[in-house]
Amino acid sequence: MAARKARISFAIKRFKGFWNQFKKSKRGMAGIIIVAFFSLLAIFAPIVAPYDPITPMKDKTRYPSDTKPPLIAAKLANPSWYKYLPWIQRGPTNAEELFWTNTSQLGGLYFVVFGRLEVTGEGAISRATIDEHRGNATDDYMMLSKAALEAPQVQVIYPNGTTRDIANTQEWWDIRSPAAVGGQFGSPTYNSLRSFVHTLSETLGKDLVYAVFKLKYRYSSDVTENIELVPDFQFSSDQNFNEQWDWATLTGSAQLRYNSEKGVNNDGCIEITYDPTTTESESKVVLSSRFEYPYWEPPETFWAHLSVRVQGKPVDVTMTIQKDGEHKIDILRLHLDPTSLYFHRAIYPREKPVMEASGSLTPEKIVMPSPGNYTFGVEVAFSGNDDAAVYLDDVNFISYGNSFGLLGTDNAQGAAYPRDIFSTLVYGTQVSLLVGILSALFGTVIGLFLGLVSGYVGGITDEIIMRVADLFLVLPTLPLFIVLVVALQVVYGSVSMWNIIIVITLFGWMGFSRTVRSMVLSLRERPFVEAAKAAGAGKFYIISRHILPNVFALVYITLATAVPGAIVTEASLSWLGLGDPMIPSWGKLLYDFQTSGVAITKGLTEYWFWVFPACLSIALLATAFILMGYALDEILNPRLRMRR
Amino acid sequence: MGLKEYVVKRIVYSVILIFAALTVNFIIFSMLPGDPLEAYMAKMAQTTGMTEERYLALRAELGLDMPLHERYLNYIQNMLTWNFGRGEIGGGQTVTQMITQRLPNTLILLGTEAVFSIIIGVLIGVLVAHKRGGLFDTATVTASLATYSVPIFFIGWLMLFFFAVQLKWFPLGGIQPRAWGRTPPTSIFEFLAGRISCLVLPTITLFLFSVGGWILLSRACVLETITEDYVVTARAKGLKERTVLYKHVLKNASLPLITSVAMTFGFLISGAIITETLFSYNGMGLLMWNALHPPDLPVLQAIFYVIALTVIAANFIADLLYGVVDPRIKYG
Q1: Residue A250 confidence (pLDDT)
Q2: Percentage helix, strand, coil, to 5, in chain B?
C-alpha cells in the first residue's frame, strides 16, 4: 500500500516538474489554451449550438407530423449582427437614374439598359455608358420594381430634348396593381410598359430607336429578421387567444369562440359555428392578428400554416395578408369537405398553385413590399342553409428575413433546409477532434508496437515491417486516401467517419515506428538490458519494463504532432466531398460552399462567414496541436534536451 | 566504383517500389471486400443505361471476367504499357490522353513551386538557425509551424480573395487567360505572360503551404551540424560568418535535406490536388477531382498510378543526387 502511495506521489511530483517546465513555453501554453477551448466547445456543442447541424427544422415536434415544419431561416442569410454595422445601409434612399429602351426590339424582348446618357443637341444620344445591361425583359422589370418600392417619378426624355413627366400615372408603375387583388398575379405592369413604349414610338414616328427615361425612385435596403406572428400557435389557452387574435363576423350569423378540447392534440383550438336562420344563405367569419413589419425590404420568404377540421357542410377557408390602407391579398385558398380528422396545410409562397410570381416580382415583394402595419387573417366562408362547424388550430405565419444567427445560413445542394452555419461549426469541432485524436492515437499505438517488435525482434520480421513502412512512406498520402475512400464509397454507398479514421490510421504509423525502431536498436545494446537478460528476463518483460519507458516520452510528442495531420487530412477529404455525409464536419461545410452554386467571387466576399470561420477553426486547432507538440518536443526529447 | 553500385541498387529498389505501388493500387480497386471495380461497373450499367455491348467491352477492358491472378497480370500489363482504357468523363478522350495532357501542367506547377520554396526555405532556415533563440527565430518557427498545419484550401481561398477578387491582380483560375479561348496568341512573350499570370496564385499557395516545412527542416539540420568541431575550426580560421554558414555548415546539413526533397514530393502532390481544384488549374489534381463526382474508378486508378510513379521517380532522382553529393557513397 505504501509503495503504491509513494509511486503515486512520485508521479504527481514528476508531473508538477514537467508542468513547471511546460508553463515556460509560450507556444505550448497558447496551444493548450486553444485545444482546451475547442474541447469545451466540442463537449458542450449541444448546449452552445442552437440548431441541428444536418436537418434543422424549427419547432419540429410542435407542428403536426404530416406537414413540413418551418425552416429555421431563409437560405443564405447574413449574420444577424450585421444590423449593428454602421456601414450597412438601412432604409430608403432617393436615387435618380437614366435608362433607355431599344424600341426596335418591341416585337419580342426589348432591352432596358441602365446607364448614364449624355444628350446633346437635337435628338441624338451622343454617348452612352452602359453600366448594367439586362437582356431579358423580366429581369429589367425586377430591377425596376425592386428599385421602386414607393411610387417613383418617371420622366421621358424625347430625342429632341423635351421632357414629359409620367409620375404616378398608374400606367405601369403600381406594383400592387389592381389585378393582384384577386389572388391572381399576372404581369400587367410589364405589358403596360411595353404598350407604353409602343405608343411612344408610334406617336413619335417609326424612326425612333431609343426612348430615354429618367427615373426618380426610392431605393431601399435593410437587414431584416425573422418575424413570427404568434408564439402560441396551438391555442393552448383562452387568455393567449384573446391577447393575440381578433375576430369578427363579416356577414351572416356565424360565431367564433375558443374551444379548449377539440384541437389537434385534444387541446385548445378555435371553433366557428354556423347556425343559420331560415333565410340566411351565407356567412363569413374572419380570425385576424395584426403585426408590424418594420423593415425596408421585403422578406426573403414566408411560411404559413393551418390545421382545419370541417363538420357538416363544405366551407371555403382563405388566408390573407393586408397592409393597412392597401388591398387584401390571398395567400392560400382552400375548399374543404367535412372530415373527421384535421387537415394540415403549410405553404411556402413559391409553392404553386397557391401563388404565382408575376415576372420576377416575387410573392414576398407583392405581399409585404414596405414597412408598415399588416393584418394576417383567416377567413372562413359558409354557404347554404345547413349547420356547419369549423375547427382551426396551429395557425401561424412566419416571415423570414435576410439575417439570422451568429454566422448566417447556408445554401447547400441536396440539403432540404438551410442550416445554421454557427451550429454546424460548433458540431464540426466534435468531428475534427474525434477524428484527429483517435486516428493519431491508433496510428501512434500501432507505430509503437511495430517499432518495438521490429527493433527488438529483428531479422525477417524487422525486414518486412520496415519495407512495408518504406513503401507506405513513398506513396503520396492524399491521393491514396482519396482512392481508398472512393473505393469504399462505391462499394458501400457512402463512407462513415470510422472508415476515415481507419484509413488515416492505416497510413499513419510508419514514421513513428521507424523512430521507435532506431531507438530500440540502440537501447537493446545498453548494459541494463544485458543485465536484465542475464537475470533471466523474458523478451516481453524487457520490452515492457526496460525499453518501453525509455521510448514513451516520444509517444506524447508524436501524438501531439500527428493530430493536426489527421485533422487536416479529414478536412481535406471532406472538402473533396469524400466525408461522411451525415456528419457536420468543417470540411463538409466548405465542400457545401464549393458545390452550392454560389460563384466563388461573390461567395468569398458576400458569404465570407460561410468560408473563413471554418477554415480558421481547422487552422487554429491544427496549429494548436503542433505548437503543443513542439513544446513537448523541447522538454521531452532527450536529444534536444541534451543540447540545451 | 561505389557510385555505380549505388545507382544500380537504387534502380532495382525503384522498380520494386513501382511494382509494390501497382500492387497496392490493384488491392484497393479489386481486392477490397465487395470488389470496388465490379460494384462500380454494376452502378455504371444502372445509372448511365449503357448498351450491353459497351458494358461487356468495358468489363473486358478492366479484366473483370478473368480469375484474379490473370486479372492482376492484365492490369500490370495495361499499366506498364500506359494503356489506361477509356474513362466515362473524358468524352471520347482516352485516359492516357487525358493524363499525358495534364501531367506536364502539374509538373510545371510543382517544379516552379519546389524551386522557390526550397531555395527560400533553406536560406531562411539557415539564417534562423544561426540566430537561434532570438525573436526572429521564434517568430519564424511559430509562423512556419502554423503554415505547415494550415489546410491548403484556406491559403488558397485567402489568395483568391485578396489577389483575384479584391485586387484583381491575377485571374481567378484556369490554366490560361479566359480571353484566349481556343486560340492562344502567337507571340511567345504574350503566351508566356498569360500562362505565368495563371501560374502565380497556385504557386504562391503551394509555396506558403510548403515553405514552413523547409524552414523547420533546414533549421533542424543546420542546428545538428553547427555545433560540430569543424565549424568551430572554420570560425577560428577567421572565415566570414556567411562563408562558414553557407559553405561549411550547409554542405553537410544538406544531406538529410536532399533525402527529404523526395519525401516532401508526395506531400506536395497532396497539396497540388487541392490547389488545382481551387484554381481550376488543368492538371492531374483537377482531373482527379473531376473523377470524384461521380466516381470514375478506372480513371482514378490510372491517376493514382501515375502520381505514385512521379513520386517514385522524384525519390530516385533525389537518391542519385544524394549519391553524387555524399562523398561516402562515391568513395566508400
Answers
A1: 85
A2: 80, 0, 20
Chain A residues with CB-CB distance to B39 below 8 A: 490-491
Residues near A503 by beta carbon (within 8 Å), at least 6 away in sequence:
A481, A484, A485, A488
The DSSP output letter for A69 is P
Inspect the interface and report whether the beta carbons of A491 and B36 lie closer than 8 Å: yes
Spatial distance between the Cα atoms of A137 and A109, rounded to a whole number of angstroms: 6
> Which residues in chain B are closer than 8 Å to A577, comparing Cβ atoms?
292-293
Quote the CA–CA distance of A305 and A344 in Å, as a whole number.
8
Interface pTM, i.e. ipTM: 0.90
Instruction: Give B191's Cβ-side CA count (13 Å radius).
Output: 7
- The CA-CA-CA angle for residues A624, A479, A607, to 5°, reads 55
* Residues near A127 by beta carbon (within 8 Å), at least 6 away in sequence: A117, A118
> Which residues pair with residue A345 across a beta bridge?
A306
> Are the C-beta atoms of A90 and A296 separated by less than 8 Å?
yes
C-alpha cell at A387: 349547420
A482 contact residues in B (CB cutoff 8 A): 273, 288, 292, 300, 304
The region of weakest confidence among A216-230, A503-517, B150-164, B215-229 is A216-230
- Grid coordinates representing B236 are 577560428
User: Is there a contact between B64 and B41 (Cβ–Cβ < 8 Å)?
Assistant: yes
Is the CB of A473 less than 8 angstroms away from the CB of B263? yes
| pLDDT confidence of residue B202 | 93
Please give the residue that has the higher pLDDT: either B70 or B175.
B70
Instruction: Give a three-class secondary structure readout of A621-638.
Output: HHHHHHHHHHHHHHHHCH
Number of residues in chain A: 644
* 8 Å CB contact between A349 and A371: no
Give CA separation, A483 vs A147, A301, B283, in Å: 52, 42, 17
User: Of A257-271, A498-512, B241-255, which one has max mean pLDDT?
Assistant: A498-512
- C-alpha span between A465 and A340 (Å, rounded): 74
Say which DSSP state B246 is in: I
pLDDT in tens, A275-309: 887 777 888 999 999 999 888 888 888 888 888 99
Rounded Cα–Cα distance for residues A625 and B1 (Å): 48
Residue A500 and residue A486: Cα distance in Å, rounded?
11
Contact between A173 and A189 under an 8 Å Cβ cutoff? The reply is yes
| Cα A257 to the center of its chain, rounded Å | 40
Distance CA A268, CA A390 (A): 14
* B193, HSE (Cβ side, Cα atoms, 13 Å): 7
Chain A residues within an 8 Å CB radius of B32: 487-488, 491
Element (H, E) at B302: helix B297-325
CB contact under 8 A, B151 and A482: no
Note whether A578 contacts B: Cβ–Cβ < 8 A. yes
Residue B182 CA to residue B189 CA, distance in Å, equals 18
What is the rounded distance in angstroms from the CA atom of residue A214 to the CA atom of residue B135? 63
Cβ contact, residue pair A475, B24, below 8 Å: yes
Contact A76, A409 (CB under 8 A): yes
pLDDT digits (tens, 9 = 90+) for B232-274: 888 888 888 888 888 888 888 888 888 777 777 878 888 899 9
Residues contacting residue B42 through CB under 8 Å, at least 6 positions apart: none
Q: Which set of grid coordinates corresponds to residue A120?
A: 446633346
- Which has the closest alpha carbon to A232: A394, A77, A38, A6? A394
What span, in angstroms and rounded, lies between the C-alpha atoms of A526 and A521? 9
Query: Quick check: B266 and A474 CB within 8 A?
Result: yes
> Which range has the worst mean pLDDT, A373-377, A381-385, A615-619?
A381-385
From B296, which residue of chain A is nearest by alpha-carbon distance? A486
Would you place residue A640 in the very low, low, confident or very high pLDDT band (cuts 50, 70, 90)?
low
Closest Cα to residue A313, out of A387, A230, A228, A232?
Answer: A387
